[in-house]
Design brief:
heterodimer, A: mainly beta, six-stranded mixed sheet, B: mainly beta, 0% helix
Chain lengths: 111, 111
Amino acid sequence: DQQVKQNSPSLSVQEGRISILNCDYTNSMFDYFLWYKKYPAEGPTFLISISSIKDKNEDGRFTVFLNKSAKHLSLHIVPSQPGDSAVYFCAASFQGGKLIFGQGTELSVKP
Amino acid sequence: DADVTQTPRNRITKTGKRIMLECSQTKGHDRMYWYRQDPGLGLRLIYYSFDVKDINKGEISDGYSVSRQAQAKFSLSLESAIPNQTALYFCATQGYSYEQYFGPGTRLTVT
């Protein structure tokens, strides 16, 4: 039973445009959500997070939106840059415990 | 120097062999995790440890065992490797926040 789902395996975007990566979850007890970025031959690195008591968190070009009623979160990257090309994983946590990861979305930003 | 290191980085082994993957961290974190990454399946949790005397199974622990030798060291063993254990393996640590910090990964191939 996949509690965290990323239904788009890949996304291609033109440089300078907006990238929107989506993530759905099923467990309403999750209280914290994170996005990780992974380049080939490297481990995932933390990108941005959001608490379930908020609906938006922004850090530079990256914004995460949380819609609790829809059990949906999204990561917006504006403007997209070729260096943003990577695999993005969303993850969810309950009370600071272990993380549950989605399957990942591979973002390709074309120059 | 990297905060989370994994050895070896690449390993090819034969079916039935015993193999150990090692993880060391200098972050001083109590919590450590082992994940495997497979295409289309994201990061799946194998085992985790919240302190030196605590070991817990994750969602896919069958065929694996772990040892927490010290706060800084967490090893993953495959007692008798099989081809479907071919994957990327990641170690991660976690402090008091929700974020986990990943090592660079071990690419394991079982022939």
